[in-house]
Hints:
By secondary structure, the protein is of the alpha/beta class.
Amino acid sequence: MSYRLIVGLGNPGSEYDSTRHNIGFRIIDAFAAKCGASEWTKQRNLKGDLSQLLLEDGCKLHLLKPRTFMNESGVSIQKVCSYYRVPPEETLIIHDDINLDVGVAKVSERGGSGGHNGLADIIARIKPTFTRLRVGIGQKTHKEMDLADYVLGKFSQEDQISINASMDYHLDCLERLIRDGTEKAMNHINCKTKNIEDGQL
Length: 201
């Protein structure tokens, strides 16, 4: 299966640029720049910023940054999927995950939202059969901290260094997913993540 749409999740507005919740925006921006995708254009009717990338097989890959706030991410994705006739199965979502350490990535298919409000809205608007590239932002630094405050907060200096150092790896994960397909890429990425979590790397 090949992807026709890759979505990076985040909140619009410069005040959110460096927040944990916006790691999806950062990764898809870096991916678009590395691969020479077209310039981002605001598509008000689709409520998102769109870019296109022509793949080696001649297929066009759409890149999307929803311009709705995170909790309504599904609004833009639903519109884009409908406009370009992209089924959920050919959609890849990049999003933050508090259950993974900073710099770690994992691929999942289907499933629930895991408490992520952006994913919950997407699932409510399209079938939950899309692929997810889950990017670790680490768990709350204090258990009593409100989750919204944490994900809308900025990375510590130490975590920022880890994010910068792991960016090439995240881009490699995307390239593997596009090149090898979900199952093969997922096996490679998730095996590496498990080894990291087990302290074997």
